[in-house]
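A.,

Following up on our hallway conversation. Structure tokens first:
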């Protein structure tokens, strides 16, 4: 077993325009929260930047020929803006037919506190939000981390997510898979498993439940987005990898994507969009 896949996250069509509306005071307020927004000299309309960046990412994937692409959420800034969704799918269709793309929902796609309606709209467009797939003896599970972030409007969804995750990973282990990797939009934590609650991570109360299931099934890594910059942490043998955005960056990492290699372990590297290689030696 030796293969690699490409992780993308946060193309977020409409975010450049949304952030260009911020006043200098609002930009300062974001920066106080360590979200490095930039004051835009002119208001942006449409999504020319997102189109350019996501097209570069898809063209990069076509050159690299990964086993698959996973998109870890925040596909659009506003799920009620059909033009953003249409542009996302227009560019996604440029991905070579023999490369599958697997979607995970972000908070921009289903809301910070998902509702039955926001989940129904997401599922209609992207398919299931909690599911798994296999490649070459490895198991990959996707969860809807916005339900973990705030399930107050959909408490049953949180309960079914926990049941799904536990059952899915038990089956994967019973089938003797070599490695198990989780994809989610929100990181579980940024520094360590006891991180204080914030808008950036799954709150401790539910983080603990998820982490116990992951450790109980020897999951080797979680790949997330949401923070629009890279971050690396671990909890025991579990790697917690946060990947910078395809779209608008909120830190020093430029827009880019991550290549993840799976063989006797899980290794990975982030590439800025202008530096995606033409091919990869395994
Ligand atoms: Fe995002």
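Then the amino acids I'd put at each of the 282 positions:
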């Amino acid at each position: 077993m030796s293969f690699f896949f490409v992780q993308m996250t946060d193309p977020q069509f409409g975010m450049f325009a949304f952030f260009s509306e911020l006043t200098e005071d609002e930009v300062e307020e974001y920066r106080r929260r360590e979200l490095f927004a930039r004051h835009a000299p002119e208001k942006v309309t449409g999504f020319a930047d997102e189109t350019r960046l996501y097209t570069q990412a898809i063209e990069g994937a076509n050159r690299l020929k990964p086993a698959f692409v996973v998109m870890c959420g925040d596909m659009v800034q506003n799920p009620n803006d059909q033009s953003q969704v249409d542009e996302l799918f227009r560019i996604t269709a440029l991905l070579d037919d023999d490369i599958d793309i697997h979607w995970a929902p972000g908070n921009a796609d289903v809301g910070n506190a998902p509702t039955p309606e926001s989940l129904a709209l997401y599922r209609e467009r992207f398919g299931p939000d909690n599911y798994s797939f296999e490649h070459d003896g490895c198991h990959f599970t996707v969860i809807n981390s916005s339900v973990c972030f705030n399930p107050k409007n959909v408490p049953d969804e949180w309960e079914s997510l926990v049941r799904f995750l536990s059952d899915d990973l038990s089956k994967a282990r019973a089938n003797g898979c070599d490695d198990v990797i989780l994809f989610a939009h929100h990181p579980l934590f940024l520094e360590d498993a006891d991180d204080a609650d914030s808008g950036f991570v799954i709150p401790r109360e539910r983080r603990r439940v998820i982490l116990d299931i992951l450790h109980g099934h020897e999951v080797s890594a979680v790949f997330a987005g949401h923070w629009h910059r890279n971050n690396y942490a671990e909890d025991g043998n579990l790697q917690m990898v946060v990947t910078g955005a395809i779209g608008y960056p909120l830190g020093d990492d430029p827009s880019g994507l991550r290549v993840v290699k799976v063989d006797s372990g899980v290794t990975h590297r982030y590439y800025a969009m202008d530096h995606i290689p033409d091919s990869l030696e395994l």
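The chain has one domain: 3-273. Curious whether your intuition agrees with the design.

B.
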